[in-house]
Structures are given as C-alpha cells and as structure tokens.
Amino acid sequence: MSQMATDKLTILHTNDIHSHFEMMSANAAVISRERKAAGEEAVLVLDIGDHMDRAAVETEGTMGQANVDVINLTGYDAITIGNNEGLTVPVEALETAYSGLLCPVVCCNIFEIIGGKPPVWMKEHVILEKNGIKVGITGATAAFDSFYKLLGWDAKDPEASIAEQVQILRNQVDVVIVMSHLGITADKAIADRVSGIDIILGGHTHHVLEEPLFINGTAVCGAGKFGHYVGKVELERKAPQEHFTVMSGCCIPVECTEIDLEVENAVLIHREQAEERLQEAVAVTDRKLEVDYEKESSLANLLAQAVRHHTNTDIAIVNSGQLLGHLPAGQISVGMIHGLCPSPINPCVVKLCGSDILQALEESLLPEFYNKKIMGFGFRGKVLGVLALDGLEVLYNEAGLHYHKITQASIQGVPIEKDREYAVGTLDMFTFKVGYETLAKGQDVLYMLPEFIRDLLRQELSRPGALEESFLTRWLS
In this structure, what DSSP letter does residue 392 have? Predict the structure, then answer.
C-alpha cells in the first residue's frame, strides 16, 4: 500500500435528508463519483440523522425500511439517529428496520430506561479502519428527554456523553469524529469545551457550512438539508507519527441529473409497495370535508374534535395548516389521510390561563398569523392557518379593532374567565413557541406519544356523529 493511500482520508457526509427520495439516487451518484476520484485513498461515508421522515409515502408505507435499503445501497459506513428516527418511528418498527442495516448506528446519549443500556441496535462508539487508518466515531442526538421517556428511553446530556466517549477513543485511534444531530449552536459549544475531537459533522438545524469552522482545533461541518449537498472533508498526515490535519472541507451541490440506477430502482420499488400498503380503507364518508386556512372549516373542526376526544379535555385548539387539502366523500384510505395530514406531530394537554386562550383566539383572526409560513418542529404544511376549535364557541366582530374583535368565548355556554386555568388538548408543536406562541405558556404539559394527529383523525372518522358535528359552527360573527 502506498504512503499516500495510508495518509489521506476523505469523509463524505449527509444529514437531514428527511426522506427526500427524489434526491437519494443523485446523492448516491455523487458519493460513488467521489469514491472513484479518491482512488486507493481511504473514504468514509456517514449520515448524521433525520434520514427518515414519515411525511414521505416511502417511509410511512415501509416504516423506514425503504430508507435502510437506500443507506445500504449507497454504502454508508455509519449513521446516527435524528429526532425523526428516534421520536416518530415506533420503537419496534425502528428495531425491525435497523435489523437489516449493513452499517452501525452510533449514538452515545440514548439509553433504555429499563436496564440502562443503549437499544440493541445502537452503539455508543465504533472504531473503523480504512487503509490502516483507525477512525473513532461517536454520535449524539438532540435530547428531547420528556418525549423519549414516553418511549421508554432516557436521553442523556449530549455534551457530557460525547466527552466520555472521546476520552475512551482518543488514544486508540488516529482520527476522532462526532456525528452530531444537535444543531450548530451545540456543535460550536462542544468544539469549544471538549478537547480531542478532530471533526464534528453536524445536522438538525439544517445549516450549510461551505467550509469548516475551526474552533480550538476542531473542524465543525454541516451539509444543509434534503439531500441538496454532500459534505466533504479531506484530512492528511504527512508522517505516520504525526496527527491528521483537516486540509479542506466543502459542500458539494447535488443535481438530480446524476443518477445511481440501483438506488433509483430500489426507490421506485419501495414507492410502489408503500402506496399499495397505504390503500387500506379506514372509513367511508357521505360528504366532502373542506379545509380553509383563513376561516373555519369542517375538516379542521374534525381534527379539533379528534384531539379533544383523544386528550379527554373539555376544549381542543389546533391549527388548520396541519391539513393539506380537502377530504372527499367516499372511501377513505390510510394513504389519503397520510397525504392530507403528513406532519409527525403528537397531541398533548396543557393547562392554560383564560387570558392566554383569548389572546390566541384574537391572533387567529389576523392574517399575519393565519397566513404565516412555518417551517420545522414537525410541521409539514405551508402556512399556520386559523385556529380550529372543539368545546369552544367564540362570538366576534370581524370589523372590530385588532385584538379586540372577540366579544365572548364560552365553554359549554360558560364564558372563559381570564384568570382561570383550563386543561386544553392541543399540539406539541405549539409548546415550542411556534405560530400561536401564547399557547406555549401552558403549564404541566402532558405529551401523548406515539400517536400522530393523523392517527387521531382516523379514529374520529369512525366515531358515530363525528362528521355531522364537524359542520357545527364554532366561530360566530
């Protein structure tokens, strides 16, 4: 083996692909091209999480097995999990999908509550050898601990967990890499405070770093989102006793004109199989339910009803932007509901003061809120949309001054009291201060996993009288 082959290492990395299957063939083609360009030099291919996203038919219909197939065919050497894998794919389904994975899943801050060990399919670190170069890899994912606990997992502090693994790896390997699905702010802090890391490959916040940031000798990298880039980092060691140095880093733009035929064919097969599985009928309706982002609508009311019944609360508040189209009359399939409500968002219960409820209702009457474009936090719609209600009746004057349009809001005929606390069924998205931010002021939040709001919609469609109720007016002008 030549000295050059031993002393150069190229790392190719992706992150936050979010099941954009239309980009996966092109990503695989770029990775294959870069491998060939490297010749005999060592190449390592890593994914930094959120490869899966159940908004995509292929992932929903196969519970992630389509993603695993693509990862295998692309030839990744290791991956970590993002919040989309960890929080949206059922534990058993994730284990089943990863049982067919040909590379290790590496994450050091997720442990099973019972037993205190990582899931059987996860490793806290791995040591991979490429052309005689020993590479130590650990990973971590965003610690949404209150959510993970509901799934039976304990999400530990990422920085402390990474520091522990780096200490274990540093003297055993030539290069230490952290696959971080934590976000750019956390990556910078870890680079600043944890010594011994050569490279942090980042994700979660979808940041594009066209060249690495160097912080205390650590190269911090990130390759955007949705498969639009493949990150590339080149390291070199001039003599066997010396340390590896990051020589360059960049993000390679990915164009759909490049195709990996094997991956392309696999995606097409999985899409066909997924669509077939999602054809299962779940309900038959005798009327069309419409959605409107600027005013009350029957399908949005149905979603509010679904949340209220599932959370067992007196009132429910959701946003119509969760729904991407109308529900037609006739036979309704799993795939139709998935297409109309793809967001991996869970219901929750919060305790809200009457004044905060009234503030949110006032905001719902303003175009700067219902037309607001929202991204992230599980939301897969385009605009926020008005608030849809169940258990609440609102009297308002459309011509009134902003924030003074509502004349009365009542629960079962009893006006809401500003200083009183109410249990409200709503969406986990709001607890992160997204959209109608006053809804995030709630106390004693109870998240309800693993059901998504589309699962609740399916249940509500089967409830006798639900369709009729959805046409009852909640907003009265």
Answer: E
DSSP designation for 161? H
Kind and range of the H or E element at 314? none
Residue with tokens 């004693």: 444
**Checking phi first, is residue 358 left (phi over 0); if not, alpha (psi -120 to 50) or beta?**
alpha
Q: Apex CA 394: angle with CA 391 and CA 396, to 5°?
A: 170
Cα–Cα dist 80/166, whole Å: 16
The string of pLDDT tens digits covering residues 258-291 is 999 999 999 999 999 999 999 999 999 999 999 9
State the CB neighbour count (10 A cutoff) for residue 365.
23
Look up tokens 């912080």; give the residue: 215
Residue 142: closest CA among 127, 124, 155, 130? 155
Contact by Cβ (8 Å): 235, 198 = yes
- pLDDT tens across 38-87, in order? 999 999 999 999 999 999 999 999 999 999 999 999 999 999 999 999 99
Report the SS3 class of residue 328.
coil
